[in-house]
Amino acid sequence: MKKKICILSIxxxxxxxxxxxxxxxxxxxxxQEYSRxxxxxxxxxxxxxxxxxxxxxLTGLYLCPSDGERKMAKYTAQQALDLYLNEGAKLFQRxxxxxxxxxxxxxxPLYKENRLEDILTExxxxxxxxxxxxxxxxxxxxxxxxxxxxxxxxxxIKDKSRDxxxxxxxxxxxxAPTYFPVKNVLNPVHHHSHTFIDGGLVANNPTLxxxxxxxxxxxxxxxxxIMILSLGTGARDQTYQYQxxxxxxKVGWIVPLIHIYGSVGSQTVDHQLVQLYQRHHIRSQYVRxxxxxxxxxxxxxxxxxxxxxxxxxxxxxxxxxxEYDEQLKSFVRQLCLNHDLKVSK
Length: 345
Hints:
Layout: E1 5-10, H1 18-35, H2 42-45, E2 48-51, H3 54-62, H4 77-91, H5 96-101, H6 114-124, E3 136-142, E4 147-152, H7 153-158, H8 166-173, E5 183-186, E6 193-197, H9 200-203, H10 207-214, E7 226-231, H11 242-245, H12 250-279, E8 286-289, H13 307-323, H14 325-340
Parallel strand pairs: 1-2, 1-7, 2-3, 7-8
Antiparallel strand pairs: 3-4, 3-6, 5-6
């Protein structure tokens, strides 16, 4: 059997990152159980991790090397989840000044970036892309050049000008317009600066981008060679009636367009990959988990960090673990079997 490329892909979604983080806690426990290795980590079994916005935070944590052993992951899946549970409220906290002078965020971003940057520094430090344990793919958008950017560990190793600090890359991918300020990053070689905004505008669901990236791996080019676990942060069946929407102008369409854009983009990527894997008769090699938040009564807001909502998001993640129990176990068995194979020459 030929060793396959295994991809983990995580959508954007702010505090809703609790959902995929919870699922991956279960996945890591299954990996430890099936491999009989209590030290097994997510990064041991995936060859490429892609993450957008909140997904980029999880990507950085899973691929962050241990201080003592550079080939071992520093954080467990549970520790990654704990960051959201313990620090989530701090990320989306507003001062009384911002509430008083610009309550709705019409003139300024809703949140300051310093709390997020402090947390990233605490957890990841001055680690560079080239130092990550495995290849990654993190999307963002350069508003100065007008181009989508995909931060990549493999490219960073080859080109020092692309070897940015991981914490800066994550900030670039999480710079959601109206929520956080844009991120200005200085090129370490050419000393040119670039200004980035949220990767969700490029690929909120980065799975297809990750698939294309995997096709570049030496010796791999076919769908049969690639396994994918794609995790969403929760969809919502938001609909808009004709009688209301027919009178909307620019202001009326702002919020609906944001919701529609993110939702439709993720749905399209999933549909394309389902068709691709069905055509190759290897449907089990692609697993997508995306809960419908409407059926759980959970807030779809990416910044709802109330205790009630955080507990509800945890419960949704646990429900997904139960609902997809057999698929997760089957996928983990494939991961473990694949991990023991030697690379085909």
